[in-house]
Write a structure and sequence with these properties.
Chains A, B: It holds the Pfam family PurS. Chains A, B: It catalyses: N(2)-formyl-N(1)-(5-phospho-beta-D-ribosyl)glycinamide + L-glutamine + ATP + H2O = 2-formamido-N(1)-(5-O-phospho-beta-D-ribosyl)acetamidine + L-glutamate + ADP + phosphate + H(+). Chains A, B: Pathway: Purine metabolism; IMP biosynthesis via de novo pathway; 5-amino-1-(5-phospho-D-ribosyl)imidazole from N(2)-formyl-N(1)-(5-phospho-D-ribosyl)glycinamide: step 1/2. Chains A, B: GO terms for molecular function: ATP binding; phosphoribosylformylglycinamidine synthase activity. Chains A, B: Belongs to the PurS family. The structure is a homodimer of 83-residue chains. With 83 residues, chain A is an alpha+beta fold. Chain A has one domain (2-81): Mth169, Chain: A (2-Layer Sandwich). Helices cover 34% and strands 39% of the residues of chain A. Chain A has 2 helices and 3 strands, in the order E-H-E-H-E. Chain A has helices at residues 17-28, 52-67, and strands at residues 2-10, 34-47, 73-81. The first copy, chain A, is elongated. Chains A and B meet through helix 1, strand 2 and helix 2 of A and helix 1, strand 2 and helix 2 of B.
Chain lengths: 83, 83
């Protein structure tokens, strides 16, 4: 059994309107010290498997097919073995 | 200058329909080994400040006021000093 954490970020150069909105809202609330805000998404999966490499490849496949859009997203996979 | 990463998760017991949908979609795609899927959001802020405790309190304040909903969310703040 593995826990996979997938961090899905927008690629450099892709606009992040949600982050811009957060930044503007924080500045409006008086937090002038905030210079930049970015948002990104994470998915945590629990999945069967014994071989770390196999599990990694499977999760990578899921990212390409469903979880991320390779045109605009970069993603990072972290695996942790659990009982 | 600090980089603050804020991980915003739903509290235990709060339904995560997005995660359920991801789980179902992965199972439909043939990934039967996936037993659970949870999604959560992250915000990355770049903000001025020299004193770590002060910055932490400020970010905690932002979470309470804007970034998270304390009724349904738990959040985790990680600070990293940058130049």
């Amino acid at each position: 059994m593995y826990n996979a954490t997938i961090i899905i970020k927008l690629k450099k150069g892709v606009l992040n309107p949600e982050g811009r909105t957060v930044l503007r809202a924080l500045n409006h609330l008086g937090y002038d010290g905030v210079k930049d805000a970015k948002t990104f998404k994470c998915v945590e999966l629990t999945l069967d498997g014994d071989n770390e490499e196999e599990v990694y490849n499977k999760v990578d496949d899921m990212c390409k097919k469903l979880l991320a859009n390779p045109v605009i997203h970069d993603y990072e996979i972290t695996l942790k073995k659990v009982e």
